[in-house]
Design goal:
alpha/beta; Rossmann fold; 6 strands
Length: 219
């Protein structure tokens, strides 16, 4: 009797649709710490990230999607560091802890070039170790164009072939040269670029960017 009941349960389980991933998005947050970023500008980036995660709408979306986050600092050739390892945002406490880590984050590198292709490839490798999520996204912030390391376009293509989305936040002075560089050479076909007019607008731009990434709302 028990054997027959067990067999029936197995049959019902086999007919049920597979369980969706608990994690909606694995999101790499890649922060530029190349030579063009001074101490104050680095602090704006770290604090801006910490503050963005405390936004009520972002908090709600992170918890609802059990979003997985990691922070990487990057600059020149071979200079990429996982500063905060993968963590899933399941509770308000998870978000508070991650935000506090971001705010206290020491700068990883100084006096280095800008290797955009290298950070794309490094981030792809980190996504291979991420929790099992429905989407994989690389979020690159930067205030300069590529001048070292591997070709960003070939790195982008490799990421795209794996179904990874690449978005960018361009920190501009005058003009949109960095925005255009990211749009033409870095983001994937399903990706997008937001422009921050100087570092003072970085925190608000990052907040809008993360909200769009974790809620998939177009605005």
């Amino acid at each position: 009797m028990r054997t027959a009941l067990f067999a029936i349960c197995l049959g019902i389980a086999a007919l049920m649709p597979p369980r969706a991933e608990a994690c909606s998005t694995a999101l790499v947050l890649a922060i530029d710490v190349s030579n063009s970023i001074d101490t104050g500008e680095y602090r704006i980036q770290a604090d801006g990230l910490a503050d963005a995660l405390l936004d009520p709408e972002i908090r709600e979306a992170l918890i609802a999607g059990e979003v997985a986050l990691t922070v990487i600092q990057w600059s020149g050739r071979g200079r990429q560091e996982v500063s905060i390892p993968w963590a899933q945002m399941r509770t308000p406490g998870d978000i508070d802890a991650f935000s506090s880590q971001a705010r206290a984050l020491p700068r990883a590198f100084i006096m280095s070039d800008t290797a955009v292709g290298d950070i794309i490839r490094f981030s792809v490798n980190q996504l291979a170790m991420a929790p099992d999520c429905a989407r994989q996204v690389i979020d690159i912030s930067g205030d300069g164009t590529d001048n070292a390391g591997s070709d960003p376009q070939s790195a982008r293509l490799a990421a795209e072939r794996q179904g990874i989305q690449i978005n960018a936040l361009a920190i501009e002075g005058l003009g949109i040269s960095i925005t255009n560089f990211f749009r033409r050479h870095v983001i994937t076909r399903d990706g997008f670029v937001l422009t921050s007019r100087g570092h003072t607008a970085y925190a608000e731009t990052l907040r809008r960017k993360i909200k769009r990434e974790v809620t998939q709302v177009m605005f």
